[in-house]
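sry for the spam today, last one i promise. C-alpha cells for design, 524 residues
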C-alpha cells in the first residue's frame, strides 16, 4: 500500500527497464519510511496530540485533518508523477532547528510549542527527501497539517473579554442598563457571566479549519484565498459577541424563561450555523474552481537515468540524525534533574509582626512541590504573602501555564477586576517589575502584586519566565522556580503598604528562595 501511494513520487516512468523495478521499490520504501520517522521518533508528542483530539470537542476536528491532507496530496498525483525527486540538504538545518524548539519547549513544559515543532518536521522531512519543486506542489496540504495542532487555549481569556465587552456595549446601545464587573454583568432581569464555554473558541477553530479548506479548493488567486481565510477567522469572533447579546436579550424579554438552559446552547449553534452558511454562500459568488489550476513548470529528466538510491539513503540518514539528536539530549537532561523535595520555604522571617490570616484566598495554580503562606501586620494594616515553589516540573505541575491564574475561571467566589504590569522602584534603587491585579471576593477587594523568581532573577512575564527556565535547565539541569504573591486590602494605601514590605523584606525573601534552590545539590 505504501509503495502504491508513493509511486507518483518516484520520478521514474513506467517504461523504465524491468531490471530496475527492485531499485524503484526500494527507493519508494526508503522515502515512505523516512517520511514516517518524525512520528516514530517523537511518538510521545504525537500521542499527546491525539489524546487532546479525543477528550476535547474543540479539537476533535484533528481526526479528519490527516485524511484530508492525504486526499489533497492524492489529487496532485498526476503532476507529481511528471517530476523527479531530489534530496534537499538545507532542509536538514531546518529540521535541526525544529528539534531544538521541541527540546526547549519540553524544558519549559510548553506542550503546544512541542506539538507545532513536531508537525513542522513533517513538511521539512518531505522537503529534505523530495526537494523544493515537488514540495511546492504539496505546500497547502502540508501547511494544512498545522491545523491539527490543538492550539488556542491561550485565546480563551481574550475572547471572553471581547464577548463580554461587545455584549455590554450592545445592551447599553439597546437602552438596557448594565452593571458590569470584569466578565460578569447584571441587567434588570438577572445576572450573567461570560465563562470559558462562551468564549467562542470552538466556533473560531471550526470556522478557520473549514474556511482554509474551502478557500484552497474554491479559489485560484492567493489574494482571494487570503481574504476568505481572514473572514473565516474574524467573523466567528463578531458572531459570538452577537450570539451572546441575542441570548441575553431573549432571556431578558422573556423574563428569564427562554435561552437560559439547554436551549442556550441550541440557540448558539443554530446562530453559528446560520452565520457560516451566509459566509460560504457569499464566498461562493467569487468561486474560481471552474478554472484550471496553474500548471507547474515542466522539469525534464532522462527516462533511463539510474535511480540514485545511495543519495536518498544518505538523506534518510541525515534526517534520522537530525531528528534523533534532540530526544537523546532530552533524556540526558532528564537524568540529571534534581528530584529531592524542596525544604526550608517556611524558614522565611519577615521584618514585620505576624498576624492572623488575612484571607481564605488561594491561587488557582498547578500543584507546587512546596508552598508557604504568611500573614503580617505592616504599618498597622493586614498583609498576606503566599509562596509556591516548583521543582522537577511535570505537565500537571508547572510554574508557568496558561491555566495558572489568581482565581479559578469557574465556581470561584473571587472575581478579577483586571490587571496590568507595573514597575516599582524600591530602596537602594532596586527595580522590580510585577503584575498588579485586583480581586473582589467575600472578604472585600484585595490588591495583589505577583511575580516569578527563576534562577535568581525576577520577572512578571510568562514569556521571559519560560526563557529563564529554558536557560537554567540547559546550563544546570535544574528547573526550580517560584511564584510570589503579596496582597493587602485594596484602598488608597494598598500600594504604599506593599511597597514598604518589599523595601524591608525583598532581599531576605530572595535569599530564602536561593537557599531552597541550592539545598537540592548539583551545580549552583
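last one done:
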Amino acid at each position: 500500500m505504501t509503495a502504491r501511494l508513493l509511486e507518483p513520487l518516484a520520478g521514474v516512468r513506467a517504461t523504465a527497464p524491468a531490471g530496475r523495478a527492485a531499485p524503484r521499490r526500494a527507493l519508494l520504501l526508503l522515502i515512505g519510511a523516512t517520511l514516517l520517522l518524525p512520528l516514530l521518533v517523537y511518538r510521545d508528542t504525537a500521542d499527546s496530540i491525539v489524546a487532546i483530539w479525543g477528550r476535547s470537542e474543540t479539537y476533535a476536528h484533528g481526526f479528519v485533518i490527516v485524511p484530508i491532507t492525504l486526499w489533497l496530496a492524492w489529487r496532485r498525483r498526476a503532476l507529481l508523477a511528471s517530476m523527479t525527486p531530489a534530496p534537499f540538504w538545507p532542509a536538514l538545518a531546518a529540521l535541526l532547528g525544529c528539534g531544538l524548539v521541541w527540546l526547549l519547549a519540553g524544558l519549559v513544559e510548553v506542550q503546544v510549542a512541542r506539538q507545532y515543532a513536531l508537525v513542522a518536521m513533517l513538511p521539512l522531512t518531505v522537503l529534505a527527501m523530495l526537494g523544493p519543486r515537488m514540495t511546492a506542489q504539496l505546500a497547502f496540504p502540508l501547511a494544512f497539517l498545522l491545523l491539527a495542532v490543538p492550539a488556542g487555549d491561550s485565546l480563551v481569556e481574550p475572547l471572553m473579554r471581547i464577548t463580554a465587552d461587545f455584549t455590554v456595549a450592545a445592551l447599553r446601545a439597546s437602552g438596557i442598563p448594565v452593571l458590569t464587573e470584569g466578565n460578569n454583568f447584571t441587567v434588570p432581569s438577572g445576572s450573567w457571566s461570560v465563562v470559558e464555554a462562551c468564549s467562542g473558541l470552538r466556533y473560531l477553530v471550526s470556522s478557520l479549519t473549514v474556511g482554509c479548506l474551502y478557500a484552497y479548493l474554491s479559489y485560484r488567486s492567493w489574494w482571494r484565498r487570503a481574504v476568505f481565510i481572514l473572514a473565516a477567522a474574524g467573523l466567528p469572533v463578531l458572531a459570538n459577541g452577537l450570539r451572546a447579546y441575542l441570548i441575553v436579550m431573549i432571556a431578558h424579554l422573556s423574563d428569564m424563561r427562554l435561552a437560559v438552559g439547554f436551549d442556550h446552547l441550541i440557540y448558539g449553534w443554530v446562530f453559528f450555523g446560520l452565520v457560516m452558511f451566509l459566509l460560504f454562500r457569499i464566498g461562493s459568488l467569487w468561486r474560481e474552481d471552474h478554472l484550471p489550476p496553474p500548471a507547474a513548470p515542466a522539469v525534464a529528466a532522462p527516462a533511463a537515468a539510474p535511480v540514485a538510491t545511495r543519495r536518498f539513503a544518505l538523506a534518510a540518514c541525515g534526517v534520522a540524525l537530525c531528528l534523533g539528536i534532540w530526544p537523546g539530549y532530552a533524556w540526558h537532561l532528564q537524568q540529571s534533574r534534581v528530584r529531592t523535595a524542596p525544604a526550608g520555604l517556611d524558614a522565611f522571617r519577615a521584618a514585620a509582626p505576624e498576624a492572623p490570616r488575612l484571607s481564605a484566598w488561594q491561587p488557582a495554580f498547578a500543584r507546587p512541590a512546596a508552598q508557604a503562606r504568611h500573614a503580617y501586620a505592616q504599618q498597622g494594616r493586614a498583609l498576606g504573602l503566599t509562596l509556591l515553589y516548583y521543582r522537577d516540573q511535570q505537565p500537571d505541575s508547572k510554574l508557568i501555564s496558561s491555566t495558572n491564574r489568581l482565581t479559578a475561571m469557574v465556581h470561584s467566589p473571587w472575581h478579577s477586576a483586571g490587571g496590568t504590569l507595573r514597575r516599582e522602584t524600591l530602596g537602594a534603587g532596586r527595580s522590580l517589575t510585577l503584575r498588579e491585579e485586583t480581586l473582589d471576593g467575600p472578604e472585600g477587594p484585595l490588591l495583589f502584586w505577583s511575580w516569578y523568581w527563576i534562577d535568581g532573577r525576577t520577572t512578571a512575564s510568562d514569556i521571559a519566565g519560560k526563557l529563564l527556565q529554558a536557560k537554567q535547565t540547559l546550563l544546570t539541569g535544574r528547573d526550580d522556580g517560584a511564584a510570589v504573591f503579596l496582597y493587602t486590602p485594596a484602598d488608597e494605601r494598598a500600594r504604599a503598604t506593599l511597597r514598604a514590605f518589599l523595601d524591608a523584606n525583598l532581599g531576605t525573601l530572595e535569599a530564602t528562595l536561593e537557599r531552597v534552590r541550592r539545598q537540592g545539590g548539583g551545580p549552583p
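The longest strand covers residues 415-425. ok im logging off now
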